[in-house]
Amino acid sequence: MAREVPLVAGQHAPPQVAMGVAMPSAAATGPEVVSAAYAILNQHERMQLRQQRQWIEALTGFERNNRYVLRDTQGNDIFFVRENSTCIERNFCKGACKAWRMDVYLLGPQGIQGGEASMTPFIHMERPCTLTCFCMNRPEVLISELGSGRLLGSIFEPFAWCNLQFEVRDPANQPVLITDIACCQWGLCCPCPCDGAPCNELAFPVTDIGSGQPVAEVLKKWMWGDCVQCMGEWDNYWIKFGSASNPDYKVLLVALSIFIQMRFFDRRNQKN
């Protein structure tokens, strides 16, 4: 019998420590920081993920660590996400084998303007380097809680030929949610940054593996900056949490949107 997904708020996965994950120091990350961040997550049914434009990268093409802002429906900054990959990983490692790591920060009183010194990281995402070849050593990102080291789960990309498929897995490494879309969609075949165009958006519906019912959605909206790097804003995603009221699952859906971006739409992969 298929296992049900605990989507109700407060039903946290049992604490597990992420083994083999090289996490940065998080001495300032305590239970109160994580609780405050989860309390904020509980207030939102959807969030916008926007990549911050970096002019040095736009003008020179030299890859820098990606930076994202998570916003609410009114455009208010909620969380900050920063990549912490090395120069070699960013500029010389490509495709499905590429390693990267990111941290999600709780903003301080001054918000984004206060800089990273005023923020506190509370979630860590680790994408280890893998020797991926067809169905062997498929890409995976581990998501853990800083401070305690509790493993929330992982995002796994199975081998799916032409489809774009990702599995959201629980701490026991069991798949609980899945998104699987065909490659023959307007938003993939003919991406267009014009609002209202049929190919302006690309939807990744998220399905509960246990019930087979849709429970959430990740929506990519094409921007002018996707087509011309120094023109307009960069990547734009909407994460619709739907039935996923558990903050752990909301974090995993945020990680899913970042993994989709890094795996298929990041410029360093498009140079392959």
Residue share in β-strands: 25-35%
Fraction in helix: 10-25%
Shape estimate: globular
Radius of gyration: 18 Å
Protein architecture, described:
This protein is α+β, with helices and mostly antiparallel strands. It has one domain. Helix content is 19%, strand content 29%. It contains seven helices and twelve strands. A twelve-stranded antiparallel β-barrel has the order 1-2-3-4-5-6-7-8-9-10-11-12. The longest helix is centred in the last third of the chain and has 19 residues, at 247-265. It is globular.
Task: List its traits.
12 strands; twelve-stranded antiparallel β-barrel; 272 residues; globular; alpha+beta; disordered N terminus; 7 helices
